Recover the amino acids of this structure.
């Protein structure tokens, strides 16, 4: 669920770090928040990038990295979940077979193609 | 509205924390200490996982109920300001807190660097700054 | 000395402080942070080397005395063209305005006569530059870092021929939490001499 690279480490290693970061931040935010149980973590920004975060009620986490000046990408992530992930991954009748044969169900061309197209259509994509 | 201020030393230890409003959950000192440690680690990783080389650590964290502004000095001290999501100019406020820190903490002969800050003069000046900011914001 | 000063300035650089003309040195200012850090080290030295708060104040006052006695030499040369005050009130106002202005960039905030004793005078500063950044911890609450200023005043009085016992006290008020008062108790000889000036 990570659309980056170029950090000089393997994608797997990077994914672990990203997971660690969003997991810690999510906990930190829910601890600080006066409203109990709110999962309010939306995004964070450094000098060179902005990480947007969206979590589904089932605990699936979506992360999108953008330019630091981008507005909130919450809606975009919600669309990726509702109209691309659910459609082409969850509803894929071959999902179980794929998983059994050791391929992650996300790695199917339909999902990738649609994701590509959607992200390219977003405002701010160059 | 400024909710809270935390200062974390370069080793990730919490050396100062103050709540200014009731806008956040009440945490114990111990929980704050753990939080500071977590933040310190996360801050370091966020600069490593940047898709663009040469990134700083996290500068702003947004949630639906508050924002955290983080300003790290060249010497590695981090100033964390927890504010309302709509707070303008919180970046400038972190710089002002740094100035107060430089004046009333570092120039105080009775302060041991890296240790928790218990200095009345610093406290009162921080309070003054927060009152001013919260009155105009 | 003046020759080398002109040479340095002809190169477009400011001459080093030791080569500048003594008389024209009045507008030279030292960075307050730089002084604050130096004073920090002086205080921690005094803390390390002393056994108690009184001892520490004595050390600070000694530091001040060394500054004051040299400073008097300079300021008399600069501002008084070598002239020296003989009357008590003149000396006090000289300290209150000229000395304070040259040292701290502003006159002191009050000059008062002690109410209980004939021989006591007080100079107060609402926010002394020297202790601007210092918050004294609770367990040392009697310590007055103004002892350093006290030392300077004592030296100036001594050097002018008005020996006195000088002490510094924190006289904080709500409006001025850092207010410091320098108490001067003059020697008997000074008062006797002062009396002899008065017309009979």
């Amino acid at each position: 669920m990570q659309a980056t690279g170029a950090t000089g480490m393997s994608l797997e290693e990077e994914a672990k770090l990203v997971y660690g970061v969003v997991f810690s931040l999510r906990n930190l935010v829910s601890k600080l928040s006066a409203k109990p149980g709110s999962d309010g973590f939306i995004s964070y920004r450094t000098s060179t990038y902005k990480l947007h975060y969206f979590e589904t009620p089932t605990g699936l986490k979506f992360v999108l990295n953008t330019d630091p000046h981008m507005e909130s990408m919450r809606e975009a992530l919600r669309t990726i979940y509702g109209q691309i992930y659910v459609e082409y991954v969850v509803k894929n009748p071959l999902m179980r077979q794929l998983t059994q044969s050791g391929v992650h169900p996300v790695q199917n061309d339909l999902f990738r193609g649609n994701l590509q197209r959607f992200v390219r259509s977003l405002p701010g994509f160059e | 509205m400024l909710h809270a201020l935390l200062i974390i030393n370069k080793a990730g230890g919490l050396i100062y924390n103050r709540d200014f409003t009731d806008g956040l959950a009440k945490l114990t000192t111990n929980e704050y200490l753990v939080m500071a440690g977590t933040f310190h680690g996360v801050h370091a990783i966020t600069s490593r996982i940047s898709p663009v080389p040469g990134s700083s650590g996290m500068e702003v964290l947004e949630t639906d109920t508050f924002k955290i502004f983080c300003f790290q000095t060249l010497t590695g001290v981090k100033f964390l300001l927890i504010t309302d999501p709509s707070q303008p100019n919180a970046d400038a406020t972190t710089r002002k807190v740094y100035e107060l820190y430089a004046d009333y903490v570092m120039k105080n002969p009775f302060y041991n660097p890296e240790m928790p800050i218990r200095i009345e003069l610093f406290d009162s000046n921080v309070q003054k700054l927060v009152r001013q900011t919260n009155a105009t914001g | 000395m003046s020759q080398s000063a002109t040479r340095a300035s002809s190169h477009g650089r400011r001459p080093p402080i030791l080569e500048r003309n003594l008389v024209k040195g009045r507008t030279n200012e030292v960075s307050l942070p730089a002084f604050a850090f130096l004073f920090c080290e002086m205080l921690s030295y005094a803390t390390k080397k002393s056994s108690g708060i009184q001892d520490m104040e004595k050390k600070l006052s000694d530091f001040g005395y060394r500054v004051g006695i040299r400073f008097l030499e300079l300021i008399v040369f600069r501002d008084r063209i070598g002239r020296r005050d003989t009357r008590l009130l003149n000396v006090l106002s000289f300290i209150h305005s000229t000395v304070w202005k040259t040292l701290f960039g502003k006159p002191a905030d009050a000059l008062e006569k002690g109410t209980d004793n004939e021989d006591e005078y007080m100079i107060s500063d609402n926010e002394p530059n020297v202790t601007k950044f210092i918050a004294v911890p609770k367990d040392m609450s009697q310590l007055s870092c103004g002892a350093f200023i006290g030392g300077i005043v004592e030296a100036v009085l001594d050097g002018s021929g008005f020996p006195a016992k000088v002490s510094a006290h924190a006289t904080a008020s709500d409006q001025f939490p850092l207010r410091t008062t320098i108490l001067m108790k003059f020697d008997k000889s000074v008062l006797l001499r002062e009396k002899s000036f008065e017309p009979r």
Notes: Chain A is about 45% helix and 15% strand. The CA atoms of residues 34 and 48 of chain A lie 30 Å apart.
